Amino acid sequence: MSNWKHICPLDEIPPLGARVVRRPTGGDIALFRNAEDEVFALHDKCPHKGGPLSQGIVHGRKVTCPLHGWNIGLEDGQAVAPDVGHCGRFEVKVEDGQVWLAL
């Protein structure tokens, strides 16, 4: 059973950008917003060398890690071939212009 937590209004996540949700345990979560105003949530850590995905470039339904250019799928957290690896993903929803995260 999911425990939905209100995070922020959608407008507080920049288009083609990210916002970080800090957590005391379990690692930070990056919320990404693409050009279509879709919102995705992943651990803020690239599976390659742990780079901060929240500082990467959002394009379509992917984010490019700022350290070594790996592309990570925003829908599933999977590295795009030929790279291999994944990072954790979280359920997220937007209702009435508000972003909610399942923790």
Automatic annotation (TrEMBL):
Residues 5-101 form the Rieske domain. InterPro entries: Rieske-like_NirD, Rieske_2Fe-2S, Rieske_2Fe-2S_sf. Keywords: 2Fe-2S, Iron, Iron-sulfur, Metal-binding, Nitrate assimilation, Oxidoreductase. One of its GO terms (molecular function) is metal ion binding. It comes from the Bacteria. Coiled coil: none annotated. SUPFAM superfamilies: ISP domain (SSF50022). This is Nitrite reductase (NAD(P)H) small subunit. Gene3D superfamilies: Rieske [2Fe-2S] iron-sulphur domain. One of its GO terms (biological process) is nitrate assimilation. It holds the Pfam family Rieske.
